Each structure stands twice: as C-alpha cells, then as structure tokens.
Amino acid sequence: MIKNIKPLLVAAILLASFFLPAVTSATQLTQTSVRLGRLGLSATAGNDILVTFKLNTTPTSVAKVKVTFPVGFTVATGTPTPAVTGFPLSPTTITAPPGTLTSVATAGTRDIVVSGLTSASLNSTTLYGFIIPSGTLTNPGTTGQYNITVESDNTGGSLIDSSSAPVYITSSSTADQVNVSASVSPNFTFSLSANSDTVPAADSTTTKTSSGINMLVGTNSPLGYTAYVKSANGSLVSAISPATPITTGTFDGTADTLAAGSTNYSFVPSTGAACSSCTGALTYNGEYAVADGSHGGAFNGTGFASFVSRSGYTNLDTINLKERVTVANTIGYANDYADTLTIVAAGNY
C-alpha cells in the first residue's frame, strides 16, 4: 500500500505544476495608478482620487472598474459622481472613458465600483482615467506603504484583469504639504526728461507757455503716489532788472485766470502718454487743474505744493510740466529772468 502512495504523490505534484503557472501569471492591467489628493495621516479634506488605467485582456468586455482599498483606509458609503475632466498634464494624455460613469462606494468592503463604461468603444492602447471627488476616502492613521487594487470587471462584476497600485502614507497629517511664503518689494521710479525749460519772450499782449518737460513716475503701491513742486524764488527774477520780478499768482486751491497785460508766473501740469498698466485715477490739486491756455497754478511761495497724485499702482505715468507767463508793461526788459523748480514725488505705502 505504501509503495503505491509515492507514485500517486509524484503524479499529484506533476498535475499541480500544470496549474501553478496559470495562477502566478494571472493577467494584469497594462498600466494603472491611483493618485490620492492627500498622503497625510488620516487626511480627508481634499482627498480626491485620480484613477488611471490601460486595459489588457478583451477590453471590449469591460464595463466596470473596481478600486479596493486595504485595511486602514475608510471609505464612506455613497454614490460619488466620477469626474472625467480636469485631468493633470501627463506624459501620456489621460482620456475620459466612453460612457456615462456612475459609482458606488461601500464602507464594509472599502471599495468603489465605477460603472457605465461603454464596452464596445474601449481599447487597450488608451490611458483612461476618472476622478472620485473628496469626501469619500479617509487615509490610514499609520504611516507606510498601502497597496490599492484596481481591477476591470465585466457587466456582471466578474474579474477580468487586476493590478496593485501602491501608495505611501506620510509620517504626519501635513508631511505631504509645503507652506510657501513670498514677498514683493516696494518699487518706485522717478525721472525728468530734461533739466531746463524756456518760456518764449513775453510781452504785455500775449500769454506765453514753455514747451515743457516730462515727469515719469512708476510705483507698485496700491495707494499710488503724490508729486510736489517747489519754486526757489516764488517768482522769476532778473539780475538786470531786479526791481521787477515776474511774481506768481494766488495760492488758494484754485487755478488763476491769466490775462495779457497782467503779471503772472504759473505752473501748468497735464497728463501725457497714458500708462499701459495702472489702477486708480490721476487727480490734480485744484490749484493745478488747468484745462485751457488761459489758466495756471500758483506756486506755494518757496515751499512745496502737491500738484498731482495717483490712487493706484502704475507701470509709468507721464506728466507734462510747463510754465506759463504773462507780464505787464511795468516788468522791466531783461533776458535773464530765471527760477529753479524742484520736482519730487513720493510713493504712498
């Protein structure tokens, strides 16, 4: 009897060897991946699930994809709606599976079954994907690798292909995040296009206006800037005729009206080329809100006066600065009337 057992045992082993290869080489999906929205311990918020897969065996018989999470994960029972848009850029384009997808999540079995794939339209060369929104999955409370199973099923739920997609849960609830901080330095630029300006020869019959120069100002302050002007003399003075300066008008917040035959030395700012990137508005001090050729703003004696401001940022404001003169016959003849204007601006931060 014992002699007969050994041949039977050998035969059984040989017979089993014919089946073992079929078990160990069970078909897998050609490609799969499970990207969790969070890898932190016990993470729930923001923990959506991107599942990608490339089918293998008889893809046109696939109607469902089942994702099963190992012990440690918590799946909330429900019917989350799979999203098939908003895929990240990838070396291989992720394509929405054909069909109208629905899903069922089951807490007890920790799986999510996505159904509704149009079997006849599936192939084995396309990388398909869908996203299960956050609120369905809670990560384990223990760090380490966890193997998630992704399988393709037929209409009846029978397995076709299956693969493992490992993920790693990090050592703390925030170990998958980087807090980024940054700052923007304040920026302010200022320049004048020239340092001299000439008023044409004046007489008692006309109003004369200089050709002007440009003030260029830029700032990234959301509160903008203010520009100021100061006259060194408060008038145009002459060494040849020192007794008859060309005096400025009345500094009272309102532009002066200039008339031929009267004496007035005024400041006339106006907006030049428009800024290409700016916010807020340019506002002129009432003293310098000059809309025509017969008005001008007086100087604040020999002190500073604000003449224009912007209420937002600007890449570059161009303000044209001119001087306007009228003289009476009592102003002595001379070709050396002069003054020095100091033009400054300051950002508002």
Structural write-up:
This protein is mainly beta. It has two domains: about 25-170, Immunoglobulin-like (Sandwich), CATH 2.60.40; about 190-345, Immunoglobulin-like. The protein is built from one helix and 23 strands. It has a five-stranded antiparallel beta sheet, with no helix packed on it. The longest helix has 23 residues, at about 1-25. The termini are far apart.
Distinctive features:
349 residues, mainly beta, Immunoglobulin-like, 2 domains, five-stranded antiparallel sheet, 7% helix
Secondary structure blueprint with pairings:
Blueprint: H1 2-24, E1 31-36, E2 49-54, E3 64-68, E4 74-75, E5 99-106, E6 111-117, E7 128-132, E8 137-138, E9 144-153, E10 159-169, E11 188-192, E12 208-209, E13 213-219, E14 225-231, E15 235-236, E16 246-247, E17 256-257, E18 264-271, E19 282-284, E20 295-296, E21 304-310, E22 314-326, E23 341-347
Antiparallel strand pairs: 1-2, 2-7, 3-6, 3-9, 4-8, 5-6, 9-10, 11-13, 12-22, 13-22, 14-21, 14-23, 15-16, 17-20, 18-22, 19-21
Task: Please provide a brief summary of the model.
By secondary structure, the chain is mainly beta.
**SSE-based structural type:** mainly beta
User: Class of the largest domain, according to the CATH hierarchy?
Assistant: Mainly Beta
Sheet having the most strands: 5 strands, antiparallel
Strand proportion: 35-45%
Low-confidence stretches: 1-25
Number of helices: 1
Termini, distance in Å?
A: 103 Å
The general outline is: rod-shaped
